[in-house]
Amino acid sequence: MIIASLYFFGPLRPAQEVTTMVVSRVFPSQAYTVLNASGYVVAQRKAAVSSKSTGRLSYLGVEEGSRVKKGQIMASLENEDLKAARDQSAAQINEAQAGLAQARAELQEATLQYKRYQTLVAQDLVSRQDFDASLARYQKAQAGVASAQARLRASRKALNNAQAALEYSYIRSPFDGVVLTKNAEVGEVVAPLGAAATARGSVVTMADMDSLMVEADVAESNLDRVHQNQPCEISLDAISDRRFPGQVHMIVPTADRAKATVMIKVKFLEKDERILPEMSAKVAFLSRPLEAAEAKARLAVPQNALISKDDRRYVFRLEAGRARLTPVMVGPSLGELVEIADGLKEGDRLIVKAPDTLRDGARVKVRDGS
């Protein structure tokens, strides 16, 4: 009789098999998630920046990670000959301006003489031949002014052309962004579109970090769960301590016939300097936007881990091979989970679906795979 009691109720009682789980933190968004998808962070504005002219790289002022502003000079080609051509064009403008001033002075003198002779020839005080000579000189001076003006316009156009050629030797940032890769070094030949076999086609590759979005593939059969401007939550493997609010920016209007998927572009509603292009990402498409208090992770356990007793809630915590009845304070439900406000800590191992015969302090054996 004593042995039987020890067997059923005492230390000789065999260990009961139980299923366990580890207490962890979960995000409330799980309760409002209608669809999950994975993808990558992609810059929507990205450029491989190259030069318009061919030349040897003489200056490179950026490296990977450099932040640049629109119009900032990132690199330049050898351009001493282009600077000399620009200076020559500027000097030709000065020469043309001086020539125009001289032509105008000659026109003024010819005009005065022509008008004087016009009066005198009417009074027969000068010969007709002298009057014709003054008229020819006047017309020649007018043509000289027109020619000088044309030379000045041509010199200014030549200066514009020289300045444009010099500007092509500078490689400027096309927009505000960050340098991703450096594709050339000082001393290497750079050519537009890699025209030469041994030349570099681009100097740097850069991206606009304000244009980062997650591009995720969604199966065609699940497309009805996604809509424009739908709230989302974005998690990145590289930034595990935070989740980012997002929104469906675009449902790309074409499908991938090989994978039977449609690409969804999700924009970030909050920025973080740690977010980088090509990071892997997971997107949870939500049924409603999250409130500020729902953005933080909370301790939660499955509903079937809770035990109600005397108007209180308990769980069986696994400790040194025994089940320990532990009181807990519960919070709101998170779908199939319940928030634990007090009584447990992250990493505790609990017994789920505890058998009715399980008692506090009883020896237990964990089932394989739990």
Topology:
Blueprint: H1 2-9, E1 16-22, E2 24-26, E3 33-43, E4 46-49, E5 55-60, E6 67-68, E7 73-77, H2 80-122, H3 128-167, E8 170-172, E9 177-182, E10 189-190, E11 204-207, E12 212-219, E13 231-236, E14 239-256, E15 261-268, E16 280-286, E17 298-302, E18 307-309, E19 312-319, E20 322-334, E21 337-342, E22 349-352, E23 364-366
Parallel strand pairs: 1-23
Antiparallel strand pairs: 1-22, 2-17, 3-12, 3-16, 4-11, 5-7, 5-10, 6-9, 7-8, 9-11, 12-15, 13-14, 13-16, 14-15, 17-21, 18-19, 19-20, 19-22, 20-21
Helix pairs in contact: 2-3
Structure description:
With 370 residues, the chain is α+β, with helices and mostly antiparallel strands. Among the domains are: 13-26 and 296-366, conserved putative lor/sdh protein from methanococcus maripaludis s2 fold; 46-79 and 169-207, Beta Barrel (OB fold (Dihydrolipoamide Acetyltransferase, E2P)), CATH 2.40.50.100; 80-167, Helix Hairpins (Orthogonal Bundle), CATH 1.10.287.470. The protein has 3 helices and 23 strands. The strands form 4 sheets. Strands 1, 2, 17, 18, 19, 20, 21, 22 and 23 form a 9-stranded mixed β-sheet that branches. It has a 6-stranded antiparallel beta barrel with strand order 3-12-15-14-13-16. Strands 4-11-9-6 form a 4-stranded antiparallel β-sheet, with no helix packed on it. Strand 13 (231-236) and strand 14 form a beta hairpin. It is rod-shaped and about 150 Å long. It starts with a helix and ends with a strand.
